[in-house]
């Protein structure tokens, strides 16, 4: 969710790598030279959590978390698979329902059933073996720059079909589904909408209409999109339904209305998971961190850190998030088994259709 997430929009990334330190628990895994247990959280670049919350985890468990940003979610998952014989981390966060089978089939995760799963809806617990744990949800949607459309006196598109119309030629930037989870989510939205026999024809229309493709969300949103800090040339971008509230929260002064909006008829529902990487030498500490990610404290921190919706039922949301974050009423979806069976083929077909 996200986020993208996600999740998703990270204007408050954790600085560098190490987050917090604290006294080691006698029952924790092998200590480091300093006497503390340190685990590495491998993640996409958009992971964020407040220092206060992470310090609370260290104070409670004696475990320090070091974050290893590893690119967009697609690239991070690929890296985790390529290094599975010598894993780069102890816990992985950011694999989502579009990429899930890739990680599960590669056998990179150690099963773990957190007691906190009692507070998580069964609908988003997609792996019955609990090799991964759902952490957040979010809707991947096309976002638009309000000022651009107002200044140009151009009607804002509403649907996927609208994006292929001549009046929106050269206005849309998307992420490559081979390297980006929101890019893959958007591809799956088009498969859901137009069917296995019609989605390629739709992408041919987008290609002929001047769609721009970049590798990841950071480049698409923060560089190419005209409505973000990047001040690019594209007023339409694949991002998240929760990106607009981030534009409010991080603005000074805060506007009454987000400068961007989400097209809620273009969305695909994304679920992000965390899992313990097989081969960790800090299994107990890794389990503690999975539990902590599902705790009320961590879940309440997420909305204004990663701009995603918490997975934990009943989590209190910040008022600004409630006011500005929109949820797609009818997001596009595909069964996980259908994604697993066809994802790689669809990506190859997309590549030959759009980039070939």
Structural description of this entry:
Mean pLDDT is 89; it is low at 1-35. This protein folds into two domains: 37-137 and 271-324, Periplasmic binding protein-like II (D-Maltodextrin-Binding Protein, domain 2, 3-Layer(aba) Sandwich), CATH 3.40.190; 139-269 and 331-355, D-Maltodextrin-Binding Protein, domain 2, CATH 3.40.190.10. The protein has 356 residues and is α/β, with parallel strands linked by helices. It has helices spanning 51-61, 73-82, 100-106, 146-151, 160-163, 181-194, 199-208, 217-224, 243-249, 283-293, 296-301, 303-306, 319-324, 336-355; strands at 37-43, 63-69, 91-96, 109-110, 133-145, 172-175, 212-214, 236-240, 260-277, 309-310. The two termini are 30 Å apart. Helix 6 (181-194) packs across helix 7 (199-208) and helix 7 runs parallel beside helix 14. The protein contains 14 helices and ten strands. Strands 1, 2, 3, 4, 5, 6, 7, 8, 9 and 10 form a ten-stranded mixed sheet that branches.
Write the element-wise H/E pattern from the N-terminal end onward.
Answer: EHEHEHEEHHEHHEHEHEHHHEHH
Task: Provide the CATH architecture of the largest domain.
Answer: 3-Layer(aba) Sandwich
Rg, rounded, reads 20 Å
Structural class designation: alpha/beta
- Domain count: the total is 2
* Largest beta-sheet characterization: 10 strands, mixed
- How large a portion of the residues is in β-strands, by DSSP E? 15-25%
Uncertain segments are 1-35
């Amino acid at each position: 969710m996200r986020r993208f997430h996600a999740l998703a929009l990270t204007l408050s990334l954790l600085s560098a790598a190490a987050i917090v330190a604290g006294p080691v628990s006698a029952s924790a895994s092998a200590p480091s030279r300093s006497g503390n247990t340190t685990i590495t959280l491998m993640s996409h670049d958009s992971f964020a959590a407040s220092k206060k919350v992470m310090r609370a985890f260290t104070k409670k468990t004696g475990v320090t978390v070091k974050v290893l940003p590893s690119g967009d979610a697609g690239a991070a998952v690929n890296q985790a698979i390529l290094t599975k014989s010598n894993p780069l981390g102890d816990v992985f966060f950011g694999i989502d329902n579009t990429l899930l089978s890739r990680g599960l089939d590669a056998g990179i995760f150690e099963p773990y059933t957190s007691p906190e799963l009692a507070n998580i809806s069964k609908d988003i617990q997609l792996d019955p073996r609990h090799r991964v744990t759902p952490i957040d949800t979010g809707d991947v949607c096309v976002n638009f720059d309000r000022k651009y459309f107002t200044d140009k006196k151009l009607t804002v598109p509403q649907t996927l079909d609208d994006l292929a119309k001549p009046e929106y030629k050269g206005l849309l930037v998307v992420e490559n589904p081979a390297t980006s989870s929101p890019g893959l989510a958007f591809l799956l939205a088009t498969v859901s909408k137009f069917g296995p026999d019609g989605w390629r024809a739709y992408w041919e229309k987008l290609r002929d209409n001047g769609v721009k493709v970049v590798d990841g969300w950071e480049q698409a949103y923060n560089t190419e999109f005209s409505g973000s800090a990047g001040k690019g040339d594209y007023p339409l971008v694949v991002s998240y339904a929760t990106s607009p509230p981030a534009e409010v929260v991080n603005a000074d002064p805060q506007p009454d209305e987000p400068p961007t909006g989400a097209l809620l008829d273009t969305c695909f529902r994304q679920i992000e998971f965390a899992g313990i990487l097989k081969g960790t030498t800090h299994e107990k500490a890794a389990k503690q961190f999975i539990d902590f990610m599902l705790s009320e404290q961590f879940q309440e921190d997420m909305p204004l850190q990663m701009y995603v919706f918490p997975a934990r039922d009943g989590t209190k949301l910040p008022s600004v998030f409630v006011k500005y974050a929109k949820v797609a009423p009818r997001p596009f979806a595909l069964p996980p088994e259908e994604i697993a069976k066809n994802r790689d083929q669809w990506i190859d077909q997309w590549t030959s259709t759009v980039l070939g």
